[in-house]
Amino acid sequence: MADLYRRRWRIESVFNTVKRLLGLSYLWTGSLNGIQLQIWGTWLFYAVLVDLGDAVADELSLPFDSISLEMIYRGLYHFYVAHQKGKATDPVKYFAAPENQDLGVVKQQRKPNVKLIVAPFPENQRGSDQFFSSLFSNPLDNCHTGLTCHQWSRYTTNSTLTVCCSGTQA
């Protein structure tokens, strides 16, 4: 099931790229022949772009998912300029060259998700049953610090979150 969802999301991503990046969201003409030419031309260019991205991924020995088709598309202008100056002849070698890493063809690794502990005193309450039971009981009964407690209601559920602050003692 997860594989089917991943494939579906890949299709949605492709349509988004073609519409946003390659400009297929706007039709240049109203005639049927013009619309067909624009759609076929855009999809053919996308196929060439994917082929170029796959060749760059092979050249860098990286998986295809780590290559940004958008940055290859945007980098084609830079390749064109370098080609006109006689500095580049092969787009695959141009995009894979270490001196052209600033084009951003290889996607940056995202930072891992770090869980944020929202407890007022995480070093004292992490894993504590008392903290989690306070979500479902009277918040003033479970205040272990003897300080004034405030009650914050979550807008998505009916549960209540107790937050102890460093105010005056109760």
Quick one: biggest sheet?
Answer: 2 strands, antiparallel
The percentage of residues in β strands lies in 5-15%
Number of E-type strands: 2
Measure the end-to-end span.
54 Å
Portion in helices: 40-55%
The best one-word shape is: extended
Order of helices and strands: HHHHHHEE
Mean pLDDT: 76
Architecture overview:
- This protein has 170 residues and is mainly alpha-helical.
- The protein folds into two domains: 2-103, no CATH class; 122-169, no CATH class.
- It is 46% helix and 10% strand.
- It has six helices and two strands.
- It has helices at residues 2-20, 32-60, 69-84, 91-96, 122-125, 129-133, and strands at 147-153, 160-169.
- A two-stranded antiparallel sheet has the order 1-2.
- A hairpin with a 6-residue loop joins strand 1 and strand 2 (160-169).
- The longest helix has 29 residues, at 32-60.
- It starts with a helix and ends with a strand.
Supply the key terms.
10% strand, 2 strands, 170 residues, two-stranded antiparallel ribbon, 2 domains, mainly alpha, disordered C terminus, single chain
What topology does this entry show?
Layout: H1 2-20, H2 32-60, H3 69-84, H4 91-96, H5 122-125, H6 129-133, E1 147-153, E2 160-169
Antiparallel strand pairs: 1-2
Sum this structure up briefly.
By secondary structure, this protein is mainly α.
